[in-house]
Amino acid sequence: MHHNLMLVIHCFKCDIKVIKQYFFLLCVMHLREYIKARKFGAIFNGKGSERLSKNGIEAALRKVGERAGAENVHPHRFRRTLATNLLNRGMSIQDVAEILGNADLKTTQIYCYIDKKNVENAYRKYAD
Q1: Which of 7, 19, 27, 105 is most exposed, with the fewest beta carbons within 10 Å of its own?
Q2: What is the maximal distance between C-alpha atoms in the chain?
Q3: Across 34-82, where does the E strand assignment appear?
């Protein structure tokens, strides 16, 4: 059964971070329940009941990218985009490394594109 749900939150002086955290935790809870209820442990299955392979995921992403008119779509592009966006929004590189599961900050630095304007703004913020 497929449901179309719309949620409208009206609040006065509410903390959007709290709302986002609540929904994140709610999604994690429901995802865990969904995985437990399935016959197979994997969320994405390939042919039959087999777990979707790394190559299968890459092929699926490539097809989605082609349909969207995007070039060079692959899992690491999403990792790089996530890491770069988090840094550009002010998250520390140590926290980004933790989210990506990288033990070494050098690995995280490889994934990130550093915006020079953000470096200049950070310098002004902390050096002034």
Answers
A1: 7
A2: 61
A3: none
Q: Are 45 and 57 in contact (CB under 8 A)?
A: no
Identity at 31, one-letter amino acid code:
L
**DSSP string of 75-94, one letter each residue:** HHHHHHHHHHHHHHTT--HH
CA 122 to chain CA mean position, Å: 24
- Note the residue count of the chain: 128
State how far the Cα of 121 lies from the Cα of 53, in Å rounded to an integer: 42
Per the listing, tokens 């935790």 go with 25
More confident residue, 106 or 22: 106
CB neighbours of residue 93 within 10 Å: 16
Residue 85 has pLDDT above 50, yes or no: yes
62 with 68: CB under 8 angstroms?
Answer: no
Whether 67 shows a pLDDT value over 70: the answer reads yes
Q: How far apart are the first and last CA of the chain?
A: 58
